[in-house]
């Protein structure tokens, strides 16, 4: 189908250069870009919402620093130690 669209001058220049580098027509470059954009829109709209599981409790134990992974590992290992 033939149609008329208005494209920013620099964008058109870049698209023409890309077409020349790839040995494709300007029409093919524009069609491919439009297909890719539409495909991304469709795929992001079909995601299922994420449900996070939470547990009731009184918060962190005293002295627990969630930013210190080594200390967290030590704490978890010591809680599993029967001695």
Major sheet summary line: none
Report Rg.
Answer: 27 Å
Q: Please trace the helix and strand order, writing H or E for each element.
A: HHH
Which regions are unreliable across 5 or more consecutive residues at pLDDT < 50? none
Mean pLDDT: 86
Q: Can you count the helices?
A: 3
Shape: elongated
Structural class, from helix and strand content? mainly alpha
- Amount of beta strand: under 5%
Number of strands: 0
SSE topology:
Blueprint: H1 9-22, H2 26-45, H3 69-80
Helix pairs in contact: 1-2
Features:
mainly alpha, 83 residues
Q: What would you say this structure looks like, in words?
A:
The structure is a single chain. With 83 residues, the protein is an all-alpha fold. The protein has a domain of 36 residues. Helix 1 crosses helix 2. The protein is elongated and about 70 Å long.
Provide a quick synopsis of the model.
The protein has 83 residues and is an all-alpha fold.
